[in-house]
Protein backbone atom coordinates (compact mmCIF):
# COMPACT_ATOMS: atom_id res chain seq x y z
CA UNK A 1 0.00 0.00 0.00
CA UNK A 2 1.32 3.41 -0.96
CA UNK A 3 1.24 6.23 1.55
CA UNK A 4 0.71 8.96 -1.05
CA UNK A 5 -1.32 8.26 -4.17
CA UNK A 6 -0.85 11.60 -5.89
CA UNK A 7 2.32 13.42 -7.02
CA UNK A 8 1.47 16.49 -4.92
CA UNK A 9 1.15 14.37 -1.79
CA UNK A 10 4.45 12.65 -2.53
CA UNK A 11 6.20 15.98 -3.03
CA UNK A 12 4.80 17.32 0.24
CA UNK A 13 6.04 14.27 2.11
CA UNK A 14 9.48 14.44 0.56
CA UNK A 15 9.89 18.03 1.69
CA UNK A 16 8.83 17.70 5.27
CA UNK A 17 11.06 14.99 6.70
CA UNK A 18 13.87 16.27 8.87
CA UNK A 19 17.07 14.44 9.89
CA UNK A 20 16.80 12.20 12.91
CA UNK A 21 18.22 13.80 16.06
CA UNK A 22 20.62 11.93 18.29
CA UNK A 23 18.91 10.43 21.31
CA UNK A 24 22.09 9.95 23.30
CA UNK A 25 23.06 13.60 23.15
CA UNK A 26 19.59 14.85 23.96
CA UNK A 27 19.07 12.48 26.85
CA UNK A 28 21.84 14.15 28.78
CA UNK A 29 20.24 17.58 28.57
CA UNK A 30 18.15 19.07 31.41
CA UNK A 31 14.44 18.36 31.33
CA UNK A 32 12.46 21.57 30.83
CA UNK A 33 8.69 21.35 30.32
CA UNK A 34 6.03 23.94 29.77
CA UNK A 35 3.01 22.21 28.18
CA UNK A 36 -0.29 21.96 29.97
CA UNK A 37 -0.85 18.50 31.37
CA UNK A 38 2.83 17.65 31.77
CA UNK A 39 4.77 17.81 34.99
CA UNK A 40 8.15 16.86 36.37
CA UNK A 41 8.57 15.67 39.93
CA UNK A 42 12.02 15.39 41.48
CA UNK A 43 12.76 12.10 43.11
CA UNK A 44 15.91 10.20 43.96
CA UNK A 45 14.22 6.86 43.26
CA UNK A 46 13.99 7.32 39.50
CA UNK A 47 15.12 3.97 38.11
CA UNK A 48 17.03 5.46 35.19
CA UNK A 49 19.06 7.68 37.45
CA UNK A 50 17.63 10.89 36.04
CA UNK A 51 16.27 11.91 39.43
CA UNK A 52 13.03 13.00 37.81
CA UNK A 53 9.62 11.43 37.51
CA UNK A 54 7.25 12.54 34.75
CA UNK A 55 3.49 12.77 35.21
CA UNK A 56 1.10 13.74 32.44
CA UNK A 57 -2.66 13.79 31.99
CA UNK A 58 -3.79 11.93 28.87
CA UNK A 59 -7.43 11.39 27.91
CA UNK A 60 -8.42 12.17 31.49
CA UNK A 61 -6.01 9.61 32.90
CA UNK A 62 -2.88 10.35 34.90
CA UNK A 63 0.23 8.60 33.62
CA UNK A 64 3.36 8.54 35.76
CA UNK A 65 6.84 7.44 34.69
CA UNK A 66 9.58 7.07 37.27
CA UNK A 67 12.05 6.09 34.54
CA UNK A 68 12.40 6.20 30.80
CA UNK A 69 10.35 3.50 29.03
CA UNK A 70 12.58 0.86 27.47
CA UNK A 71 10.00 -1.38 25.75
CA UNK A 72 7.75 0.71 23.53
CA UNK A 73 5.10 -0.23 20.95
CA UNK A 74 3.76 2.04 18.21
CA UNK A 75 0.18 1.07 17.43
CA UNK A 76 0.14 2.71 13.98
CA UNK A 77 2.92 3.60 11.52
CA UNK A 78 2.24 7.27 12.23
CA UNK A 79 2.98 6.72 15.93
CA UNK A 80 5.95 4.50 15.16
CA UNK A 81 7.36 7.27 12.97
CA UNK A 82 6.93 9.88 15.69
CA UNK A 83 8.65 7.65 18.23
CA UNK A 84 11.59 7.07 15.90
CA UNK A 85 11.92 10.78 15.19
CA UNK A 86 12.02 11.32 18.94
CA UNK A 87 14.98 8.95 19.10
CA UNK A 88 13.24 5.90 20.58
CA UNK A 89 14.23 3.41 17.86
CA UNK A 90 16.29 1.23 20.20
CA UNK A 91 13.38 1.06 22.67
CA UNK A 92 10.77 -0.11 20.16
CA UNK A 93 9.78 -3.75 20.76
CA UNK A 94 6.81 -3.76 18.40
CA UNK A 95 5.00 -1.95 15.62
CA UNK A 96 1.38 -2.50 14.62
CA UNK A 97 -1.00 -2.01 11.68
CA UNK A 98 2.02 -1.83 9.42
CA UNK A 99 0.04 -2.24 6.18
CA UNK A 100 -2.13 0.81 6.87
CA UNK A 101 0.61 3.07 5.51
CA UNK A 102 4.34 2.74 4.84
CA UNK A 103 6.87 4.59 6.90
CA UNK A 104 8.67 7.50 5.18
CA UNK A 105 11.68 6.45 3.13
CA UNK A 106 14.21 8.06 5.45
CA UNK A 107 13.28 5.84 8.39
CA UNK A 108 11.74 2.74 6.79
CA UNK A 109 15.03 0.82 6.76
CA UNK A 110 15.68 1.66 10.38
CA UNK A 111 12.33 0.20 11.38
CA UNK A 112 12.84 -3.03 9.42
CA UNK A 113 13.97 -5.00 12.48
CA UNK A 114 11.16 -3.86 14.79
CA UNK A 115 8.85 -6.87 15.37
CA UNK A 116 5.51 -6.58 13.56
CA UNK A 117 2.59 -7.30 15.91
CA UNK A 118 -0.18 -6.79 13.35
CA UNK A 119 -0.65 -5.63 9.78
CA UNK A 120 -4.10 -4.18 9.05
CA UNK A 121 -5.84 -4.15 12.44
CA UNK A 122 -4.67 -3.52 16.02
CA UNK A 123 -2.77 -6.45 17.54
CA UNK A 124 -4.62 -9.18 19.35
CA UNK A 125 -4.50 -8.94 23.13
CA UNK A 126 -2.11 -11.88 23.56
CA UNK A 127 0.27 -10.61 20.86
CA UNK A 128 0.56 -7.16 22.39
CA UNK A 129 1.02 -8.48 25.92
CA UNK A 130 3.62 -10.98 24.71
CA UNK A 131 5.78 -8.08 23.55
CA UNK A 132 5.96 -7.02 27.23
CA UNK A 133 5.80 -3.27 26.59
CA UNK A 134 6.05 -0.64 29.28
CA UNK A 135 4.64 2.08 26.97
CA UNK A 136 2.10 1.73 24.15
CA UNK A 137 1.45 4.75 21.91
CA UNK A 138 -1.77 4.85 19.89
CA UNK A 139 -3.66 7.28 17.60
CA UNK A 140 -7.06 6.61 19.21
CA UNK A 141 -8.68 4.77 22.08
CA UNK A 142 -10.21 2.28 19.63
CA UNK A 143 -6.98 0.29 19.64
CA UNK A 144 -7.71 -0.66 23.26
CA UNK A 145 -11.25 -1.98 22.75
CA UNK A 146 -11.41 -5.22 24.73
CA UNK A 147 -14.63 -6.28 22.96
CA UNK A 148 -12.66 -6.43 19.70
CA UNK A 149 -10.10 -8.76 21.22
CA UNK A 150 -7.55 -6.02 21.86
CA UNK A 151 -5.76 -5.42 25.15
CA UNK A 152 -7.61 -2.80 27.17
CA UNK A 153 -5.82 0.06 28.87
CA UNK A 154 -6.54 -1.57 32.22
CA UNK A 155 -5.16 -4.93 31.06
CA UNK A 156 -2.02 -3.24 29.87
CA UNK A 157 -1.67 -1.48 33.20
CA UNK A 158 -2.01 -4.80 35.02
CA UNK A 159 0.86 -6.09 32.88
CA UNK A 160 3.16 -3.17 33.61
CA UNK A 161 2.42 -1.00 30.57
CA UNK A 162 0.95 2.47 30.25
CA UNK A 163 -1.04 3.58 27.21
CA UNK A 164 -0.60 7.00 25.64
CA UNK A 165 -3.35 8.06 23.21
CA UNK A 166 -2.87 10.92 20.76
CA UNK A 167 -4.52 14.03 22.20
CA UNK A 168 -6.81 14.40 19.19
CA UNK A 169 -7.80 10.74 19.44
CA UNK A 170 -9.21 10.92 22.96
CA UNK A 171 -12.92 10.09 22.92
CA UNK A 172 -13.94 13.39 24.47
CA UNK A 173 -11.87 15.38 21.96
CA UNK A 174 -12.33 13.48 18.71
CA UNK A 175 -14.88 16.00 17.38
CA UNK A 176 -12.92 19.08 18.45
CA UNK A 177 -9.37 17.95 17.68
CA UNK A 178 -6.94 20.42 16.11
CA UNK A 179 -3.82 20.13 14.00
CA UNK A 180 -1.76 21.63 16.82
CA UNK A 181 -2.72 18.76 19.11
CA UNK A 182 0.23 16.90 17.64
CA UNK A 183 2.49 19.50 19.28
CA UNK A 184 1.10 18.44 22.65
CA UNK A 185 1.84 14.82 21.79
CA UNK A 186 5.39 15.66 20.75
CA UNK A 187 6.00 17.50 24.01
CA UNK A 188 4.38 14.83 26.18
CA UNK A 189 6.25 11.98 24.52
CA UNK A 190 9.46 14.00 24.64
CA UNK A 191 8.98 14.33 28.39
CA UNK A 192 8.16 10.65 28.86
CA UNK A 193 11.19 9.58 26.81
CA UNK A 194 13.42 12.21 28.52
CA UNK A 195 14.27 13.93 25.24
CA UNK A 196 12.68 17.38 25.64
CA UNK A 197 15.22 19.12 23.40
CA UNK A 198 14.60 16.65 20.59
CA UNK A 199 10.87 17.21 21.02
CA UNK A 200 11.33 20.97 21.00
CA UNK A 201 13.25 20.78 17.73
CA UNK A 202 10.54 18.63 16.17
CA UNK A 203 7.81 20.99 17.41
CA UNK A 204 9.63 24.04 16.12
CA UNK A 205 9.88 22.46 12.68
CA UNK A 206 6.16 21.63 12.69
CA UNK A 207 5.23 25.13 13.85
CA UNK A 208 7.47 26.70 11.21
CA UNK A 209 5.79 24.69 8.48
CA UNK A 210 2.35 25.75 9.65
CA UNK A 211 3.50 29.36 9.84
CA UNK A 212 4.81 29.12 6.29
CA UNK A 213 1.39 27.98 5.08
CA UNK A 214 -0.34 30.78 6.96
CA UNK A 215 2.03 33.35 5.52
CA UNK A 216 1.75 31.99 1.99
CA UNK A 217 -2.04 32.06 1.79
CA UNK A 218 -2.17 35.39 3.63
CA UNK A 219 -4.97 37.52 2.19
CA UNK A 220 -5.80 35.18 -0.70
CA UNK A 221 -9.61 34.98 -1.14
CA UNK A 222 -10.75 31.77 0.50
CA UNK A 223 -12.15 28.85 -1.47
CA UNK A 224 -15.00 26.67 -0.23
CA UNK A 225 -14.26 23.02 0.43
CA UNK A 226 -16.31 19.88 0.93
CA UNK A 227 -14.46 17.03 2.58
CA UNK A 228 -15.95 13.63 1.85
CA UNK A 229 -15.38 9.95 2.41
CA UNK A 230 -16.54 7.63 -0.35
CA UNK A 231 -16.95 3.87 0.03
CA UNK A 232 -18.77 2.19 -2.82
CA UNK A 233 -21.90 4.24 -3.31
CA UNK A 234 -21.87 5.51 0.27
CA UNK A 235 -21.06 9.20 0.66
CA UNK A 236 -20.13 10.83 3.95
CA UNK A 237 -19.34 14.45 4.72
CA UNK A 238 -16.61 15.39 7.20
CA UNK A 239 -17.72 18.29 9.33
CA UNK A 240 -15.68 18.20 12.52
CA UNK A 241 -12.59 16.73 14.17
CA UNK A 242 -8.97 16.88 13.10
CA UNK A 243 -10.07 16.49 9.48
CA UNK A 244 -12.09 19.72 9.57
CA UNK A 245 -9.32 21.62 11.33
CA UNK A 246 -6.85 20.52 8.67
CA UNK A 247 -9.12 22.14 6.06
CA UNK A 248 -9.40 25.34 8.10
CA UNK A 249 -5.66 25.51 8.73
CA UNK A 250 -5.05 25.07 5.01
CA UNK A 251 -7.25 28.10 4.35
CA UNK A 252 -10.38 26.33 3.16
CA UNK A 253 -13.91 27.25 4.18
CA UNK A 254 -15.76 24.05 4.98
CA UNK A 255 -19.22 24.01 3.40
CA UNK A 256 -20.36 21.80 6.27
CA UNK A 257 -20.83 23.43 9.67
CA UNK A 258 -19.10 21.61 12.55
CA UNK A 259 -21.81 22.94 14.87
CA UNK A 260 -24.57 21.33 12.81
CA UNK A 261 -26.63 18.67 14.64
CA UNK A 262 -25.43 15.87 12.36
CA UNK A 263 -21.88 16.35 13.65
CA UNK A 264 -22.78 16.64 17.33
CA UNK A 265 -21.72 13.09 18.19
CA UNK A 266 -19.43 12.14 15.33
CA UNK A 267 -17.16 14.03 12.96
CA UNK A 268 -18.75 12.49 9.84
CA UNK A 269 -22.32 12.08 8.62
CA UNK A 270 -23.84 10.22 5.69
CA UNK A 271 -25.24 12.59 3.07
CA UNK A 272 -26.90 12.49 -0.34
CA UNK A 273 -25.18 13.81 -3.48
CA UNK A 274 -27.70 16.64 -3.50
CA UNK A 275 -26.05 18.03 -0.36
CA UNK A 276 -22.83 18.55 -2.29
CA UNK A 277 -24.56 19.85 -5.40
CA UNK A 278 -26.51 22.46 -3.46
CA UNK A 279 -23.33 23.77 -1.77
CA UNK A 280 -21.29 23.78 -5.02
CA UNK A 281 -17.84 23.75 -3.34
CA UNK A 282 -14.77 25.13 -5.08
CA UNK A 283 -12.84 22.01 -4.07
CA UNK A 284 -13.52 18.52 -2.78
CA UNK A 285 -11.02 16.84 -0.45
CA UNK A 286 -11.09 13.06 -0.09
CA UNK A 287 -8.90 10.49 1.64
CA UNK A 288 -7.17 7.64 -0.16
CA UNK A 289 -5.39 4.50 0.94
CA UNK A 290 -3.95 3.43 -2.42
CA UNK A 291 -3.71 4.51 -6.07
CA UNK A 292 -6.69 2.28 -6.79
CA UNK A 293 -8.84 3.93 -4.13
CA UNK A 294 -7.89 7.37 -5.49
CA UNK A 295 -8.81 6.35 -9.03
CA UNK A 296 -12.15 4.89 -7.93
CA UNK A 297 -13.06 7.92 -5.82
CA UNK A 298 -12.11 10.39 -8.55
CA UNK A 299 -14.25 8.46 -11.00
CA UNK A 300 -17.22 8.52 -8.60
CA UNK A 301 -16.89 12.24 -7.92
CA UNK A 302 -16.53 13.14 -11.59
CA UNK A 303 -19.56 11.05 -12.55
CA UNK A 304 -21.71 12.22 -9.67
CA UNK A 305 -20.85 15.93 -9.64
CA UNK A 306 -20.03 16.95 -13.23
CA UNK A 307 -21.51 20.44 -12.79
CA UNK A 308 -20.01 21.20 -9.37
CA UNK A 309 -17.22 23.80 -9.42
CA UNK A 310 -14.71 21.42 -7.83
CA UNK A 311 -15.06 18.97 -10.73
CA UNK A 312 -15.31 21.58 -13.49
CA UNK A 313 -12.14 23.30 -12.23
CA UNK A 314 -10.32 20.06 -11.49
CA UNK A 315 -9.94 20.68 -7.76
CA UNK A 316 -10.37 17.16 -6.45
CA UNK A 317 -7.71 16.86 -3.75
CA UNK A 318 -6.58 13.40 -2.65
CA UNK A 319 -5.03 13.17 0.82
CA UNK A 320 -3.41 10.00 2.21
CA UNK A 321 -5.83 8.55 4.74
CA UNK A 322 -3.03 8.02 7.23
CA UNK A 323 -2.31 11.77 7.25
CA UNK A 324 -5.75 12.34 8.78
CA UNK A 325 -5.18 10.16 11.84
CA UNK A 326 -4.80 12.03 15.14
CA UNK A 327 -1.33 12.55 16.56
CA UNK A 328 0.68 12.27 13.35
CA UNK A 329 3.16 14.53 11.63
CA UNK A 330 1.11 13.71 8.55
CA UNK A 331 -1.46 16.26 9.75
CA UNK A 332 1.09 18.92 8.79
CA UNK A 333 1.62 17.22 5.43
CA UNK A 334 -2.12 17.33 4.79
CA UNK A 335 -2.30 21.05 5.59
CA UNK A 336 0.55 21.77 3.18
CA UNK A 337 -0.87 19.59 0.43
CA UNK A 338 -4.40 21.02 0.62
CA UNK A 339 -3.16 24.61 0.82
CA UNK A 340 -0.94 24.09 -2.24
CA UNK A 341 -3.79 22.55 -4.20
CA UNK A 342 -6.26 25.27 -3.19
CA UNK A 343 -3.89 28.17 -3.80
CA UNK A 344 -1.14 27.01 -6.18
CA UNK A 345 -0.14 30.56 -7.08
CA UNK A 346 0.69 31.30 -3.43
CA UNK A 347 3.50 28.73 -3.28
Automatic annotation (TrEMBL):
Annotated keywords: Signal
Q: Which InterPro entries match?
A: ABC_Transporter_SBP (IPR050902), ABC_transptr_periplasmic_BD (IPR002491)
Q: Where do the Fe/B12 periplasmic-binding domain residues begin and end?
A: 71-346
Q: Signal peptide position in this chain?
A: 1-24
**Protein family membership:** Belongs to the bacterial solute-binding protein 8 family.
Q: Which PANTHER family match?
A: IRON(III) DICITRATE-BINDING PROTEIN, VITAMIN B12-BINDING PROTEIN
This chain belongs to the protein called: Iron complex transport system substrate-binding protein
| Species per Swiss-Prot/TrEMBL record | Streptomonospora nanhaiensis
Q: What is the lineage of its organism?
A: Bacteria, Bacillati, Actinomycetota, Actinomycetes, Streptosporangiales
